[in-house]
Amino acid sequence: MIFRQSFLLLVAAVLLCLAAKAQPAPIMLDTLREPIGKRLKAWAKAQSLRPYALRVGTDLSYWLNGAVSAPFGRNTIGENLKNFYANTARFELTADMAFNRNKNFLIADVGYSSTFRERNAKDSLRNVSYSNTGTYWRIGFDYNVLHKTFTDRKNALMVGWRYARANFAQEAAYTARSTPWGFNGMPAAPLFSETISDRLNYRWMELTMGLRVAVWRELYLGYTFRIKFAGRPSNTDRLLPNEVPGFGTIRSNVKLSFNYHIYYRIPLVKNL
Amino acid sequence: MNKLIRGFVCLYGLLVLAACEDCVFTSRHSSEPIVRFYRKGSTRVLVPGFDSVQTGRGITIYRAGRILYSSITSENPVPNSVALPLDPSRDTSLFVFFGRRPGAPADSPARRDTLVLTYKRILSIVSPDCGYDRRIENLQIIKNPYDSAQIAAQLVVLRADTVHIRLFW
What we know:
The complex is a heterodimer of chains A (about 270) and B (about 170).
Chain A: H1 2-22, H2 29-49, E1 53-59, H3 61-72, H4 82-86, E2 88-99, E3 104-119, E4 128-144, E5 156-176, E6 192-216, E7 219-229, E8 239-240, E9 243-244, E10 248-249, E11 254-267
Antiparallel strand pairs in A: 1-2, 1-11, 2-3, 3-4, 4-5, 5-6, 6-7, 7-11, 9-10
Chain B: H1 2-17, E1 34-38, E2 45-46, E3 50-55, E4 60-63, E5 66-67, E6 82-83, E7 92-99, E8 111-127, E9 131-143, E10 148-151, E11 165-168
Parallel strand pairs in B: 1-11
Antiparallel strand pairs in B: 1-2, 1-6, 3-4, 3-7, 4-5, 7-8, 8-9, 10-11
């Protein structure tokens, strides 16, 4: 009997030893903190990837320009800008998704632009018309440089980068004289007139700086200052683009512009 | 917050002021390449000795040493050269040279030489207010009656003493 009990005790002791070896190290104060810290970090990381708020809006600058510039503005040959804005339709939707508690943003814009401009001079050799219709989009990211200052996690002063692309159709018509080739303006040999159409796409990059300010509850106003770096149009055949939807007129390799926006913000996380 | 909104309004004012369009533009592009003639193996420029030069439409553009139709070079012609106004309606232009070749003896027989040029016409609207700019790119010779030819500039741009085509014989 004693032998049997001793044997059982020995087996129990061996099992206890094995079990003891399988146990974690003795709980110390420091190691107790470490898993919690790691867990907190993992939670914070998960929160940084979690969408914090979605802001959707539209560009006001085209409408504001039309309302303010059209009645008073004049172009370089003295014409009122009213006609220009009457023949121009532009619309842009913009959205940003905040991550990491209003620190990082993913940005997406889509827009439409249609413009028709012409010069009707008494001298038909000076007549020119140009139309341009197309869509564009931009994607990019922003960083809120004042995320520590704006503790309400709503307003933002952002710097960022964009990649943009436009697809558009353009058409130009003009008149020219060339006496050596029989286009001299006489009834028997009228001036040479030509209309050129083209479909293009155009890519460009932007560096941006912008502000988003809550003006009433979840309603925001914002502006974006853009430094646009011109790209090259693809498939250019015979007509170089005068302007590109979303980019504006192409005259130099770098272009500056402002956009004003109105936004509505949809919080996606509460009590963070 | 009010400061931010005031800042907004000020920035909009700047935007309106910056909306002006500038129309200062000077184009150096031309649609009249300049041709000069040389004896083969030499760099000495020959005086064009043609009686006349006609376009493919039969209109005379050069006669007895005088450029008859040139929108740009008639006031400041490049010495000893012929300006060939290109057809604005096509990507190919044909020119016929009548008379003696440049530098040929006075008793040499009159000839009829045909030169055909091909090119790409590019139009850019500077702005509908300012107008348009036409430029000629990728100028090539596809029929040359002389011994050899050289395109000195594929983009037809006007500069002092610029020559676009050199013809040798």
